[in-house]
Design goal:
With 446 residues, this protein is of the alpha/beta class. The chain folds into 3 domains: 198 residues, P-loop containing nucleotide triphosphate hydrolases (Rossmann fold), CATH 3.40.50; 146 residues, P-loop containing nucleotide triphosphate hydrolases (Rossmann fold), CATH 3.40.50; 74 residues, RRM (RNA recognition motif) domain (Alpha-Beta Plaits), CATH 3.30.70. It is built from 16 helices and 18 strands. It has a 7-stranded parallel sheet, with helices on both faces. A hairpin with a 4-residue loop joins strand 16 and strand 17. Helix 2 runs parallel beside helix 3 and helix 6 packs across helix 8. It is globular and about 65 Å long. The chain starts with a helix and ends with a strand.
C-alpha cells in the first residue's frame, strides 16, 4: 500500500516519528523475522507498529493480512480507532469477549477486514471455527505481550503461535521487560529476532515530564484528603487508582455524594457500563475516573493530567504503568501518592517529594467542563460526525470550539458540548430535525 508517512503524521497532529517509532519502522523494513520493542506507556507504540504494518497491506484484497493481539477489549477497540483515525482505505475490526461470537462472525463476513485487533481467547475462537484464516497473514503483532502471556493466557497464546507458525513477521511490544521473550518466538522466527529497548531513556524522559508528590492524610480513611486534593485539581482529568473493585465503588460513591463528576471502572462491571464510564471521561463530562489497575494498561487518553494513588502500588511495575496514563507523548502530568499515618512510601517511589503547600480546607468540586448529549440516531441511519457538528452549529447556534468529542454508534450518537451552553442549546434545537430526521436529544446523566 502506498501512503505518505508525513501526511499521516500531520493528520494526527505530529511533526515527525520519534526515535523509537523510526527504529521499529527500520527494523520492520528489513524483511521477515521477529522484532521485540520495549518502550514505556505513552510513547506511541500503537502508531509505531501501525505505520510499517500499512506498507504490507493490499487495500484491494479481501483477505486477512495482519493480526494484532491485545490483552483487553478496551485496547482492541482503542487500537482500531487509531487506525480509523488515519483515514486510509483499510478495513479493520476489533474482536473481543463480552458479546456473542456469532454477531462478530456476521460482521466479519460482511466487512471482510484486512486487519483485526483481537483478544487472545476471541481470536482463537474465530480461528478454530474458520471465521478467520491464518493463511496469507503477513504480520502478527502482539501488543503488551507480557500481559498476554500472564496466567490464563499462556495456553491460548501457545495455540495461536501454532496457528501463525508460517507468518513471516512477528512483532512484540511491551512497556516492561517482564519475564523475557516468549519461548515460541524462537519457534516462529528462528534466530532472526531483534530487540529494541527504549525503556531507560524514554522512561527517564516521561518521569521528567511528571511531577510526583506525597499527600499525607491525617486519618487512616483517606476519603476526605482525596476530596480536598481533587478540589485543588479542579477540572483536571484525573484517574484515581485503588486496590480493589469494592474500593472503587466506595470511593466513586463518596465523590458523587460530594458532587464530583466521577465515574467508576473495574473488571467486575458489565461491559456496557465500563464503556460508558470511559466515554464520559474521555468526553470531559466526568473529570474523575476511579479505577483498579485495569486502567493502568491500554488506555490512551492524552488529556489525563493527574494520577492519584489512593492505594499505594504494590510493585514498581504497577507504579510505572499507573503513572504512564499521564504525560502521554510530550505532555506533562502530575502523580500524587496519598499516605495514611501508618503508611510509608515504597522504595521505588524515591522521586516523590512532599506536597509543597497545604490542601484546601473545604471540599468544593469544579463542575465538568462538558456535558454529553445522547442523540437517538446513528450509523444505521447514515448519520455522521459532520452531520452532528453541522446540526449543533446551524440549528443550535454553537461554534466548533464549543463542541468536544463526537462519537457515532450504530443506532445512536454522543456529542460533548460546553456545560454552560446546554440549556440554551436544547431550547434552540427543540423540535428540529437532524439530517431530515426527528430524534431524541438529551443530556447523559453521570
Amino acid at each position: 500500500m502506498q501512503y505518505s508517512v508525513s501526511e499521516t503524521l500531520h493528520r494526527l497532529g505530529f511533526e515527525a516519528l520519534t526515535p523509537m517509532q523510526k527504529a521499529l519502522a527500520d527494523a520492520a523494513g528489513h524483511g521477515q523475522g521477529g522484532v521485540v520493542l520495549l518502550s514505556p506507556t505513552g510513547s506511541g507504540k500503537t502508531l509505531a507498529y501501525l505505520l510499517p504494518l500499512l506498507s504490507l497491506l493490499n487495500e484491494h484484497s479481501d483477505a486477512l493480512q495482519a493480526v494484532v493481539t491485545v490483552p483487553t477489549r478496551e485496547l482492541a477497540k482503542q487500537s482500531e480507532e487509531v487506525l480509523r483515525s488515519l483515514k486510509l482505505p483499510i478495513r479493520a475490526m476489533a474482536l473481543y469477549g463480552g458479546r456473542p461470537t456469532m454477531d462478530e462472525h456476521r460482521s466479519l463476513k460482511g466487512l471482510k477486514p484486512q486487519v483485526v485487533f483481537a483478544t487472545p481467547g476471541r481470536l482463537e475462537d474465530h480461528l478454530s471455527k474458520g471465521n478467520l484464516r491464518a493463511e496469507g497473514v503477513a504480520a502478527w503483532v502482539i501488543d503488551e505481550f507480557d500481559k498476554c502471556l500472564e496466567l490464563g493466557f499462556q495456553e491460548v497464546m501457545d495455540q495461536l503461535a501454532g496457528r501463525f507458525g508460517r507468518v513471516p513477521r512477528v512483532w512484540l511490544l511491551s512497556a516492561t521487560e517482564g519475564e523475557g521473550i516468549p519461548v515460541f518466538m524462537a519457534r516462529l522466527t528462528g534466530k532472526r529476532c531483534r530487540t529494541l529497548n527504549f525503556l531507560e531513556g524514554c522512561a527517564e524522559a516521561a518521569a521528567q515530564r511528571t511531577a510526583f508528590y506525597e499527600v499525607k492524610s491525617p486519618e487512616k480513611d483517606k476519603l476526605t484528603t482525596l476530596g480536598r486534593l481533587l478540589t485543588e485539581l479542579g477540572s483536571c482529568p484525573t484517574i484515581v487508582f485503588v486496590a480493589h473493585r469494592e474500593s472503587a465503588e466506595r470511593v466513586a460513591n463518596y465523590l458523587r455524594e460530594n458532587r464530583f463528576a466521577a465515574e467508576v471502572y473495574h473488571g467486575g462491571m458489565e461491559q456496557q457500563r465500563r464503556e460508558r464510564a470511559l466515554f464520559l471521561f474521555r468526553q470531559g463530562s466526568a473529570t474523575v475516573l476511579v479505577s483498579t489497575d485495569l486502567a493502568a494498561r491500554g488506555l490512551d487518553i492524552p488529556e489525563v493530567g493527574a494520577i492519584v494513588h489512593y492505594h499505594l502500588p504494590l510493585t514498581a511495575e504497577d507504579f510505572t504503568h499507573r503513572n504512564g496514563r499521564t504525560a502521554r507523548w510530550e505532555a506533562t502530568g502530575q502523580a500524587f501518592l496519598i499516605t495514611s499515618p501508618v503508611e510509608t512510601l515504597p522504595e521505588f517511589a524515591a522521586q516523590v517529594e512532599p506536597l509543597p503547600h497545604p490542601l484546601p480546607e473545604h471540599i468544593a468540586p469544579t463542575p465538568a467542563p462538558f456535558t454529553t448529549l445522547y442523540i437517538g440516531r446513528g450509523k444505521a441511519e447514515k448519520l455522521s460526525k459532520a452531520d452532528i457538528l453541522g446540526f449543533l452549529c446551524k440549528k443550535g447556534g454553537l461554534n466548533a470550539s464549543q463542541i468536544g468529542r463526537i462519537d457515532v454508534a450504530p443506532h445512536c450518537a454522543f456529542a460533548a458540548v460546553r456545560s454552560s451552553l446546554v440549556k440554551q442549546l436544547l431550547t434552540r434545537i427543540a423540535g428540529e430535525k437532524i439530517k431530515g430526521m426527528k430524534t431524541i436529544v438529551k443530556p447523559v446523566k453521570n
